[in-house]
Amino acid sequence: MRSAPLSRRSLLTTSTAVGAAVGATALLPIAAHAAPAAAAGGSFDLIAEVLDGGEQIVAVRLRSSALAPVAADSLTTDTFTVHVRATSPLDGSLAYEQDRVVTGARLEGKQIVLDLEHGYGVDGASTQLYVLRGGRNVLLDLEYTLTQTAPLRKKGNGAEIVLGELVQGALVSPEVDAFTHHQVEGGLKYRLFTPSARGKGRDKALVVWLHGGGEGGIGAGGSTYYDNESTLRANRGALGFATAEAQEIFGGAYVVAPQSTSAWMSDGDGFAPQIQAVIDEVVARERIDVDRIYVTGCSNGGYMTLKMVAEHPEQFAAQVPICAAVSGPGGTFHLSDETLASLAPTPTWLVTSANDDTLDPVANTVRFHELIDGSIMSLYETVEWDGVEYPGHWSWIYVARNDPQEQGVRLWEWMAAQQL
Known about the structure:
Layout: E1 42-51, E2 54-63, E3 80-87, E4 94-100, E5 102-108, E6 111-116, E7 128-131, E8 136-139, E9 141-148, E10 152-153, E11 160-161, E12 166-172, H1 174-177, E13 179-183, E14 189-193, E15 204-210, H2 230-233, H3 244-250, E16 253-259, H4 268-285, E17 288-298, H5 300-311, E18 318-322, H6 337-341, E19 349-353, H7 362-371, E20 376-380, E21 383-385, E22 388-390, H8 396-400, E23 405-406, E24 409-410, H9 411-417
Parallel strand pairs: 1-12, 15-16, 15-17, 17-18, 19-20
Antiparallel strand pairs: 1-2, 2-6, 3-4, 3-9, 5-6, 7-8, 10-11, 13-14, 14-16, 21-22, 23-24
């Protein structure tokens, strides 16, 4: 159940381009005396979607010239089996290995699409591995194997078709793929979404998304992992602002997602100028309306949102800290009450859930709300979407779905209306 947001005084994450692997197909014998000759082989792509709980492989798309004359009724969910073996990119250890459940099968020209079971809690679907050391999400190396277990038939004469070798191709995740890869020279990697050319003569807004602790790089313990991927694949935080709905509301907006080399809270003073360098590079290269730059982020990124506004109060038209924290062990990352109170000139909308057991919402978000004069707070009871209850820390789901409301105005519309 979702609660209505409370007005003032009321009252971290999870994954990225997967390295291509090779899968082979082998037809189980249909009948030893009547096995048809193998037709042409082909290749298949892994089709991914970033769900509210993170990116999953939701389908495979098989291409082969032999599929053009196939009779549609010869293809069923039992024609192929799908098997996956997933290993860690850090040490090659096995993360999981299992068969995937095929829930749908259809022909699209010379292609076959096999829909796979997916959703929150479905085993073997995720593209991510959460590494306990450092609490990071890394992109799994995925090896999929398609096995044809029954022949297809040709239109007209009904001749059987048995496909040859099938080779695994690309990971295709349309929303993620809409963001391009960049890196500031000597600085942070980042992903950038560029709005459509509609209204190309007008400068566009810029939304800065700052990820949670789980999406930073790993640089300690003798290994380095810095993928510039998990910032988009772990959750829909940045992707939400690139949707057609959000783009319509903002009149077109760039979305930039820098990636920390570790965690923002490990060195807020050091990362603030590096994030600023990313913003400066995008502003210098693209047609950005500098009066409409917005900063938002979750957990670690919620802290860094507050930190960036404290460092550059004149730069941001609005800020949206989500389930944010301002202190670590011993108060190492503390933003003082005075600093928080000084943020009042920047329009602020805070989001959290009352059942967040990662960061105490009262000690953090509710406290910020009391200190930042004029701020808006959406305090939910739980984190639920489409009938699924997620961990209480994941309140970024509501922001990515434009759910928070205040006096009938939704969050994205409120953001888009703010300007310097």
